[in-house]
């Protein structure tokens, strides 16, 4: 990470002597061949109004996981993947259960349902895949590697209770993830049910029913009597058609780990949602730091299957280790490829984590402290006018992490601060940092409303100073 003044000058297209002279004027002695670190280089560059950009480092994992371009002609329609979200007790589990029990796929006699994180149901002649984990854990965890697990979110709101805190949280998460929302107004069998009130309340969050002039689908349902549920399923299929969900089944499989565990008898078991391609028994696979060969696959009815195509959830046996939920599973051509993938993953993620937290602690100590809650986390969203500044800010901010507070950039990007940024900040309790950008009007009013802290800067080190101060605030509570 070090460079000489001469190298810096070359990058800045300046005479090295000029930089040395300038430093000398400030009482700092340097020679042209003297090595300086990145911070110093950044500081020097800033004096000439140049924002330093760290050299692009190749993210090996990102490279490995890179999506190859698909030919349009290879793509065929795939079932939608749906998650159910909403406030506690509004009926998410009941709804999932009702649908599962009434719309079983051609289950063979003796098939015992098992929880593999998701299940497929048959609606007319088509299929819909439901993620089994109620709540947004389902796709927040999945977004770790930028992969999207869900196409459609069914937002369950009890008609006798209306919009509640977790309803709003669910909306924010779905919006932040760019997921289509269908509202299921549940418990319409109850005497106190008021569908219109729910519609009214949700307009505040940008979900306006079609019959009220908006574009959000609202379906009144009862998870108890089953009323309206077929209609809800039809609306899911309709939305899927509009989204034109497609995948290529004839390629090496890629999937997302929904859950994984170590089973005494079976060894490592990963519940995987296949997203592209087809996974076969016998395929070589890698998944995070684990690798192996598919020994057997089971569907949600405990039946052995030989293949699993796009949008299909399966239990996969044969990995040599238990992967994390949210990891991407890839099928590889050879055993060696799979092992290499896993090995690269291990070394890369360790160095990346260490680098990101810039911590002197061991990995194990870090994890246990986070778990105990003695390590605090400061979440930031960074927006800037150019990618270089986003990266520069991220790098500098991440370096502020210390033994007690870890700085985490939960989102970074180019462009003005938008409503989505504010929503994400509100949902994650994050601070928004804008560098040479401003919030747009909706973002601003939303930030005021939600109490989201937006800070605007034109100089990088001022941003750094402020965040440093904020971290001190986290250490010493102000009464
Ligand atoms: P979750 O916390 O969102 O998963 O909610 P549950 O599915 O556990 O439901 C909470 C309670 O509401 C349970 O006692 C259910 O029996 C009840 N419930 C769920 N859906 C309905 C419904 O449509 N009508 C009525 N009357 N009760 C319901």
UniProtKB/TrEMBL annotation:
<comment type="similarity">
    <text>Belongs to the TRAFAC class translation factor GTPase superfamily. Classic translation factor GTPase family. IF-2 subfamily.</text>
</comment>
<protein>
    <recommendedName>
        <fullName>Translation initiation factor IF-2</fullName>
    </recommendedName>
</protein>
<feature type="binding site">
    <location>
        <begin position="132"/>
        <end position="136"/>
    </location>
    <ligand>
        <name>GTP</name>
    </ligand>
</feature>
<feature type="region of interest" description="G-domain">
    <location>
        <begin position="80"/>
        <end position="228"/>
    </location>
</feature>
<feature type="domain" description="Tr-type G">
    <location>
        <begin position="77"/>
        <end position="244"/>
    </location>
</feature>
<comment type="function">
    <text>One of the essential components for the initiation of protein synthesis. Protects formylmethionyl-tRNA from spontaneous hydrolysis and promotes its binding to the 30S ribosomal subunits. Also involved in the hydrolysis of GTP during the formation of the 70S ribosomal complex.</text>
</comment>
<feature type="binding site">
    <location>
        <begin position="186"/>
        <end position="189"/>
    </location>
    <ligand>
        <name>GTP</name>
    </ligand>
</feature>
<feature type="binding site">
    <location>
        <begin position="86"/>
        <end position="93"/>
    </location>
    <ligand>
        <name>GTP</name>
    </ligand>
</feature>
């Amino acid at each position: 990470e070090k460079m000489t003044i001469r190298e810096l000058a070359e990058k800045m297209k300046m005479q090295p002597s000029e930089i040395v002279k300038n430093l000398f004027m400030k009482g700092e002695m340097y020679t042209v061949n003297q090595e300086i670190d990145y911070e110093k280089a950044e500081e020097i560059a800033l004096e000439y109004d140049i924002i330093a950009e760290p050299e692009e480092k190749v993210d090996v994992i990102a490279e490995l996981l890179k999506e190859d371009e698909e030919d349009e002609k290879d793509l065929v329609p795939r079932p939608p993947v749906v998650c159910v979200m909403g406030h506690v007790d509004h009926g998410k589990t009941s709804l999932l259960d009702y649908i599962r029990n009434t719309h079983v796929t051609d289950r063979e006699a003796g098939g015992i349902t098992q929880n593999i994180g998701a299940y497929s149901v048959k609606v007319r002649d088509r299929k819909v895949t439901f993620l089994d984990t109620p709540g947004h854990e389902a796709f927040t965890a999945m977004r770790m590697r930028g992969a999207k697990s869900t196409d459609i979110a069914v937002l369950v709101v009890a008609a006798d209770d209306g919009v509640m805190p977790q309803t709003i949280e669910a909306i924010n998460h779905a919006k932040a993830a760019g997921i289509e929302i269908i509202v299921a107004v549940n418990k319409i069998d109850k005497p106190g049910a008021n569908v219109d009130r729910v519609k009214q309340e949700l307009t505040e969050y940008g979900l306006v029913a079609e019959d009220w002039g908006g574009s959000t689908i609202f379906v009144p349902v009862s998870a108890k009597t089953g009323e309206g549920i077929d209609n809800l399923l039809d609306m899911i299929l309709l939305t899927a058609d509009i989204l034109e969900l497609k995948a290529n089944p004839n390629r090496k499989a890629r999937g997302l780990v929904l859950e994984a565990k170590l089973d005494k008898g079976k060894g490592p078991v990963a519940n995987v949602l296949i997203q592209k391609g087809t996974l076969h028994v016998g395929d070589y696979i890698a998944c995070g730091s684990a690798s192996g060969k598919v020994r057997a696959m089971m569907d949600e009815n405990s039946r052995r299957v030989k293949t699993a195509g796009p949008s299909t959830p399966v239990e996969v046996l044969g990995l040599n280790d238990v992967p994390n939920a949210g990891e991407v599973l890839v099928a590889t051509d050879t055993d060696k490829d799979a092992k290499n993938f896993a090995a690269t993953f291990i070394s890369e993620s360790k160095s990346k984590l260490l680098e990101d937290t810039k911590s002197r602690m061991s990995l194990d100590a870090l994890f246990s402290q986070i778990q105990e809650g003695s390590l605090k986390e400061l979440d930031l969203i960074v927006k800037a006018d150019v990618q270089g500044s986003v990266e520069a800010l991220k790098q500098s901010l991440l370096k502020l992490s210390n033994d007690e507070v870890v700085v985490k950039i939960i989102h970074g990007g180019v462009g003005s601060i938008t409503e989505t940024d504010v929503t994400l900040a509100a949902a994650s309790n994050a601070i928004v940092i804008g560098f040479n950008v401003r919030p747009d009007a909706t973002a601003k009013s939303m930030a005021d409303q939600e109490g989201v802290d937006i800070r605007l800067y034109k100089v990088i080190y001022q941003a750094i100073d402020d965040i440093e101060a904020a971290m001190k605030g986290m250490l010493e509570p102000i009464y």
